[in-house]
Amino acid sequence: MTSTIRTADRHTVLVVDDHPLFRRGVRELLSLESSIEVVGEAGGRDDALELARKFEPDLIVLDLNIKGSSGVEILTALKDEDPSRRVVILTVSDAAADLSACIRAGADGYFLKDMEPELFLENIKHTLEGGTIVDPSMVGMLTEMLRTKAQAAPEVAPIRFTEREREVLDLIVRGLTNKQIARELAISDGTVKGHVKHLLKKLGVKSRVEAAVWASAQEH
After folding, report:
1. Which domain holds residue 164?
2. Same domain, 132 and 163
3. A single GO molecular function, which one (predicted)?
4. Cα separation, 83 vs 72, whole angstroms
5. pLDDT tens readout for residues 173-218
6. Which strands form 133-134's sheet, in the order they lie side by side?
7. 164 and 108 share a domain?
């Protein structure tokens, strides 16, 4: 477990992976962006939870396969302690079951480790601004899984949204960050966060990713 002193006015990131060499590579890549600071590295569940409590990072980058625990278990523990924590999964797995488990546990993004470094950095920046990213190769898979789940679910009353909630949901589907949504609708970032929180509660989901895919599935 390693940590650094937090610097003000920069986005903070915690990297969780059981391979020190890979953690170092992610740290060095993120250090290329002046607006991002890696405040800690963890190799397992206990260290991850301890550093998350200590630094309250803006984003946690979490490997899916960690010795002695699973990424889903760590993700669940992080979200149970604080549902507002933003966590993205960085993994080699393109298995549908892993993607589904992570999204339903509240992951705010799902990245494959074979992506180009420049794209990874752009995705991290987008997520830090409140956006959501699922690897493009897996979006269709996730949409189909959630559509199948919706079709198998018992008949329930339609979910009713306010006009503003519908506008926010549509912009989430388009991939806009909280700041971009605020500018688009001429409202504050805090108001956007409030609408997003209410949307997730109404939909019974844990992340913007699942909310976006749910909305997309309703259109097909």
Report:
1. 145-218
2. no
3. DNA binding
4. 14
5. 887 888 889 999 999 988 998 998 888 888 887 778 778 777 876 7
6. 2-3, 36-42, 11-16, 59-63, 87-91, 109-112, 133-134
7. no
Q: Which residues of 77-87 are buried (b: 16+ CB within 10 A; e: fewer)?
A: bbbeeeeebbb
Could you give the CA distance from residue 131 to residue 86 in angstroms, rounded to a whole number? 10
- The answer, yes or no, to whether residue 154 has pLDDT greater than 60, is no
Quote the number of domains for the chain.
2
Q: Which residue has the tokens 């301890």?
A: 50
Domain boundary among 85, 108, 138: 138
Q: Name the 3-class secondary structure at 142.
A: helix
Give 76: exposed, middle or buried? Use CB within 10 Å, 0-12, 13-18, 19+: middle
CA-nearest of 102, 100, 50, 53 to 76 is 102
Nearest to 180 by CA among 133, 134, 130, 214: 130
Q: Can you give the pTM of this predicted structure?
A: 0.77
Q: Could you tell me which of 220, 8, 17 has the C-alpha nearest to residue 111?
A: 17
Residues 10 and 114 reside in one and the same domain: yes
Determine the distance from the C-alpha atom of residue 188 to the mean position of all C-alpha atoms in its chain, rounded to a whole number.
22
The phi, psi pair for 18, rounded to 5°, reads -85, 5
Q: The tokens of 94 are what?
A: 């393109």
> Average pLDDT for residues 160-167, to the nearest whole number?
92
What token pair was written down for 219?
A: 């259109």
